[in-house]
Amino acid sequence: MQIDLLRHGETTLSHTLRGHLDDELTEKGWLQMQSTIQQYITTPMDWDVIISSPLRRCRRFAEHLADQLELPMRVNDHIKEMYFGDWEGISTQAIYEAEPKRLANFWQFPTQYHAPNGESLIQFQQRVMCGFDEIYEQMQRHNWNKALIVTHGGVIKLLTCLARQQNLDDLLTMPAELGKLYALNLTQVDNQIHFSEKTAI
Fold first, then answer.
1. pTM for the whole structure
2. By residue range, what is the domain housing residue 109?
3. The pLDDT value given to residue 200
4. Coil, strand, or helix at residue 117?
């Protein structure tokens, strides 16, 4: 199975760690996603389904696109962004000024450090993998071979890290630009989901 991962575009709180905050896309953010999709659908469009995070910065665009392309659309609660706890809605600059060491540790060693009262990387990974177990089962049940998944930077970085079989401490160096599309293969071996990388679109 193939999955194309579309990161949401710029949002009203793009200068902060948004996590589970449910902010809206800006006009620029909507256009970033629209422009990426327009480039893609000039070639034969072969998605069978659109699956989205429940947060508005993903879901609203996904609903619009599903209507436009007349495709089924599903929401998966497990593919939300990482939860940043006390850092939700705060800019990295403000966090750096208040807690420089804690932020530096989080950026460099995300497997060992997490935001105060936020999700650990292991908890985040378990949640996202639970979501992709559901997605795989859903695709198999409906005989869908290719899905567009509208999600978040943290989710895309995590899956790319897993696909490249890199140390999870490298997570934050993975690519996940606003409004861009990334392609992965999704397989199941011994009841476990595996990701492998295709060329970025």
1. 0.94
2. 2-197
3. 46
4. coil
